[in-house]
Amino acid sequence: MPDGKETTLILMQPGQSGVVVEIQGRRGMTHRLGALGIIPGKRITKVSSMFMRGPVTVLVDRAQVAIGYGMASRILIKLI
């Protein structure tokens, strides 16, 4: 559970940056996110999110990546 300066990706505001602390999912999800460059220790910036559980767009290594609401809710971020 997030505490202090840690939050989930869906709770971040657009424009906020942070470092991925943990991905709370099974091997398939962590492998898929790893292929997109989202791994623990990686700095990401939230670009936007859609209303009502839509996809979340993040900036990872100068590339914009859109991930689903369910995946985004399982990514724990330490805010910078």
Summarize the topology.
Blueprint: E1 6-8, E2 17-23, H1 27-35, E3 43-49, E4 56-60, E5 63-67, H2 69-72, E6 75-79
Antiparallel strand pairs: 1-6, 2-3, 2-6, 3-4, 4-5
Can you characterise this structure?
It is a single chain. The chain has 80 residues and is of the alpha+beta class. The chain has a single domain, classed as Ferrous iron transport protein A (FeoA) (SH3 type barrels, Roll), CATH 2.30.30.90. The protein is 16% helix and 40% strand. A six-stranded antiparallel β-sheet has the order 1-6-2-3-4-5. The radius of gyration is 11 Å and the shape is globular.
**Mean pLDDT value:** 93
CATH architecture descriptor = Roll
Helix content: 10-25%
Strand content: 35-45%
Element string (H = helix, E = strand): EEHEEEHE
